[in-house]
Specification:
The complex is a heterodimer of chains A (113) and B (117). With 113 residues, chain A is mainly beta. Chain A is built from no helices and twelve strands. Chain A has strands spanning 3-6, 11-14, 19-21, 23-26, 32-38, 44-50, 56-59, 62-65, 75-77, 86-93, 102-103, 107-112. In chain A, the strands form three sheets. In chain A, strands 2, 5, 6, 10, 11 and 12 form a six-stranded mixed β-sheet that branches. Chain B is an all-beta fold and 117 residues long. In chain B, 0% of the residues lie in helices and 52% in strands. Chain B has strands spanning 4-7, 10-13, 19-25, 32-38, 44-51, 57-58, 67-73, 76-81, 90-97, 106-108, 112-116. The N and C termini of chain B lie far apart (37 Å). Chain B is globular. In chain B, the strands form two sheets. In chain B, strands 2, 4, 5, 6, 9, 10 and 11 form a seven-stranded mixed β-sheet that branches. A four-stranded antiparallel β-sheet of chain B has the order 1-3-8-7, with no helix packed on it. In chain B, 37% of the residues are buried. In chain B, a hairpin with a 2-residue loop joins strand 7 (67-73) and strand 8. Classes of the chains: A mainly beta (113), B mainly beta (117). Chain A binds chain B through residues 32, 34, 36, 41-46, 49, 51, 89, 93, 98-101, 103-106, 108, and chain B through 4, 6, 32, 34, 41-44, 46, 49, 93, 95, 97, 102-111, 113.
C-alpha cells in the first residue's frame, strides 16, 4: 500500500537558518504530493503541492520538488522565521485512492530568535 | 481560498454522553468530506470518508456505531461520538474536497478538541 516517511523531529533552528525536511514515499501509479502545516491548536493548512514528476510546489518561501526517481518530496526554506514554528506533514494522494490522503508522521519545527 | 468551518472547537463532556461535531464548507460544495483523529504529537488517522447522500465508508478498526457520520447536504457533515468514554478523548479534524480542482486538494477545519471526563 501507499506510505509516507518523513524525518523525525523536533527540528530546532535559529531564525534565518536553512530548513530541510525530508520526505519519501511509496505508491503505485502517479500520486499527488502535498505539504501541510499545522500551527498549535489548529487544523491543517495546505502549504504546497505537486501533481506530477518534476513539478515544483512553492508558497511563502517554501519549496518542494516531486522527484519520481528518488520517490522524494523534500521541503526546503532558505531563511526561516519564528512564525514558521509548526508541525509539517508530508502527504500523498494515490492514483486510485479516491482522494484519500496518506500522511507522514509529521515533523515539528521550532525556530528560535 | 476554500474555507472549512468546524464546530465546536473544544468540548468537554461526561462519560456516557454523546457529542456532535459539525463540519461545513463555507464557500464551496463538498461532495466528499473526511474525518480524522489525531492523538497528541502523532499524525492524522483517517476514520471515515463521507459522501453526500450516501453512507459513510469507515476505515478498518473504526466502529461505525460509535462514530456516526451524516453528510446531509453538500456543505455539511456531522460526526457524532456516541456514548463517549475517556479513551475517545482526542483531536478530531474534518476536511472537505473541492470538486473541480486538480490534485485532490483537501481543505481542513480547525479541529475539535474532545475531552471526556
Amino acid at each position: 500500500g501507499n506510505s509516507v516517511t518523513q524525518m523525525e523531529g523536533p527540528v530546532t533552528l535559529s531564525e534565518e537558518a536553512f530548513l530541510t525536511i525530508n520526505c519519501t514515499y511509496t505508491a503505485t501509479g502517479y500520486p499527488s504530493l502535498f505539504w501541510y502545516v499545522q500551527y498549535p491548536g489548529e487544523g491543517l493548512q495546505l502549504l504546497l503541492k505537486a501533481t506530477k514528476a518534476d513539478d515544483k510546489g512553492s508558497n511563502k518561501g517554501f519549496e518542494a520538488t516531486y522527484r519520481k526517481e528518488t520517490t522524494s518530496f523534500h521541503l526546503e526554506k532558505g531563511s526561516v522565521q519564528v512564525s514558521d514554528s509548526a508541525v509539517y506533514f508530508c502527504a500523498l494522494s494515490g492514483s486510485y485512492s479516491w482522494g484519500k490522503l496518506q500522511f507522514g508522521a509529521g515533523t515539528q519545527v521550532v525556530v528560535t530568535p | 481560498g476554500a474555507v472549512v468551518s468546524q464546530h465546536p472547537s473544544r468540548v468537554i463532556c461526561k462519560s456516557g454522553t454523546s457529542v456532535k461535531i459539525e463540519c461545513r464548507s463555507l464557500d464551496f460544495q463538498a461532495t466528499t468530506m473526511f474525518w480524522y483523529r489525531q492523538f497528541p504529537k502523532q499524525s492524522l488517522m483517517l476514520m471515515a470518508t463521507s459522501n453526500e447522500g450516501s453512507k459513510a465508508t469507515y476505515e478498518q478498526g473504526v466502529e461505525k456505531d460509535k462514530f456516526l457520520i451524516n453528510h446531509a447536504s453538500l456543505t455539511l457533515s456531522t460526526l457524532t461520538v456516541t456514548s463517549a468514554h475517556p479513551e475517545d478523548s482526542s483531536f478530531y479534524i474534518c476536511s472537505a474536497r473541492a470538486p473541480g480542482l486538480a490534485g485532490n486538494i483537501q481543505y481542513f477545519g480547525a479541529g475539535t478538541r474532545l475531552s471526556v471526563l
